Amino acid sequence: MGQEDLMNTAEDVADQFLRVTKQYLPHLARLCLISTFLEDGIRMWFQWNEQRDYIEATWSCGYFLATCFVLLNLIGQLGGCVLILSRNFVQYACFGLFGIIALQTVAYSILWDLKFLMRNLALGGGLLLLLAESRSEGKSMFAGVPSMGESSPKQYMQLGGRVLLVLMFMTLLHFDSNFFSILQNMVGTALIILVAIGFKTKLAALTLVVWLLAINVYFNAFWTVPAYKPMHDFLKYDFFQTTSVIGGLLLVVALGPGGVSMDEKKKEW
């Protein structure tokens, strides 16, 4: 079997998977995507005092402002998750969660940690894809904005979402000299480039979902670490952030790459 035949077989398997899961995949994608916000909102409730004290000590902002920060994170995240899962005011919920990401990036000094910053940007990419999906279900919120076509803003949101999702995988690259790391880096880099440019997008995104799912369960198994250890919270944070990026990739699989992609341009050739 030649390389082209192998690729065609893989695409047939991916298409078959899509046909079987077409009704459920968008719902699963949304659930995965909001999982990190859901977990963080619940954590704000159970770790209210710790979070408030941390913000108060770090920013010297006083008890009241620190409490407002925790309350805003709790209500903003849990409220946004409820709206997204219930399919109500999804666009406003997405903008609210964008605000939460920006707020946490500054408050927790993520801006100066490249790895966490890239993961937050990848999370934003997932929200962009969710925003693009919501545009196809309701009235456009870009009415009156000049564009190249009716769905142009949606297409560029899908492009931006795909490119930002790629940042997650750049944090997983290991610059070691052993064969497995080199192979993993080469295959991973090839797949993220395919997703970014929108070529064989659904197959590449589905492969990345499987790969990322395996890495997530293996490396971020927070359930194996006692809850009182700091590593438990660290792995839990990583696990749900990675799950959210998986949700974004599932949206790419379910919706396709959009108009600004090589897959779409191929149809014109």
Automatic annotation (TrEMBL):
Any one GO biological process: protein transport
One GO cellular component, as annotated: endoplasmic reticulum membrane
Annotated TM spans: 63-85, 92-111, 179-196, 203-219, 239-260
Subcellular location: Endoplasmic reticulum membrane
Main location: endoplasmic reticulum
Keyword Secreted: no
Classification via Pfam families: SURF4
Membrane topology classification: Multi-pass membrane protein
Cross-referenced InterPro entries: Surf1/Surf4, Surf4
Keywords: Endoplasmic reticulum, Membrane, Protein transport, Transmembrane, Transmembrane helix, Transport
Record family assignment: Belongs to the SURF4 family.
Record-given protein name: Surfeit locus protein 4
